[in-house]
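Milestone M4 deliverable, item 7.
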Amino acid sequence: MHAHLGDRLVVESPSTGVVRRDGEIIGLHHKDGTPPYDVRWSDTDDVTLVFPGPDAHVQHLETEADDTPSGTGTVGDDTAASRTSANPGDIGRRVAEERRRRGLSREETARRARISPQYLAYLEEQPSDPATATLFALAGALDTTAGSLRGGGVDRPPGQGHALLHPRLNDLDQEECRRLLSTHGVGRVAVTAPDGRPAVVPVNYEVVDDAIVFRTRPGSVPAAAAGDEVAFEVDHVDEAMSQGWSVLAVGPATTVTDPDALRDLARRAHTEPWAGGTRDTWVSIRPTRLTGKRITPADQSARR
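Output delivered:
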C-alpha cells in the first residue's frame, strides 16, 4: 500500500463492501508512502496514527503531478513538499496568504489546525482538495471561514458580514497611518477625470520616501491626478472578525519626470500593475494630511 498526502483512506465492510469509515491522509511516516499514516477521520475530526488492515484501501487524489509521491517524508520535514516545483491551487494560495497576513509560521498554523507542517506545505504548494474537516480546522486556525478559503464571495464587496455587537471607531495617529500606508498594495485615488467628472479608481501603489507613487498610462484617469490636490485611500476589512481600518491621505500630485528618480522607482517596485500593459507614467502624491480610523471591539479598544 502506498499513499500521497491528501489521499483518502477508506475502510469497508469485508462482507458487503459498504464504507464504514473514511479519512484524509495528512501525514506520512515513510518516504515511499507506505503505512502507517496520520489520518483525520471525516466522522469525528480526530487525527490518529493508522496501520491499515486488509479492509482498508487508499483512494488516490488525482492531480496534475507525476506518479512520484509528492511531499513524502517524515512528519515535520519542512523540505519534503518542496521536492516538486510549487504549483499551488486556489485553496493553497488563500491559506498561504492568510497565514502570511497574520504573521503565522507554517509550524504555528499547523499546530493550531492539528495537522503536520509537512501537510500544510503540501497544501500551499501543490493543487489539492482538502477534506471538509481539514478546511474547517485551517479556517479556525487562521480566524477566517472555510467559504473564504474556497473563494466564496470573491465577487462581492467586503463588509457584508455581521457588525460587531459592541464596535468602537478609533482615530489612528500619524505614525500608525504611515505604518499601515507603507505596507503597499492596492489603494484608491479620487481625481477629476479628463471629461471633468469626479472619479475614484484603484491603483497598485508604493510608498517611497514618504510619497505615494503609482504607475499608469498617459491620458488615463489616474494620470489626471497630476497637477491637482487629490485624496488617496487604502483600507483593510477582516470579514471573519468584523474589524477593519482605513487611511486617507490628501496632498498634491505630480508626474515624476527625473530620469534617475524614474529608474529608482522602477527598481524599488514590489509588483507589476495588475491591469497589465505598458504603464510607464509615474505619479507621486505628497501627503499634507493623513487621517485614519479603525473598528475594534469595545473591550479590545479599552485594553489598547
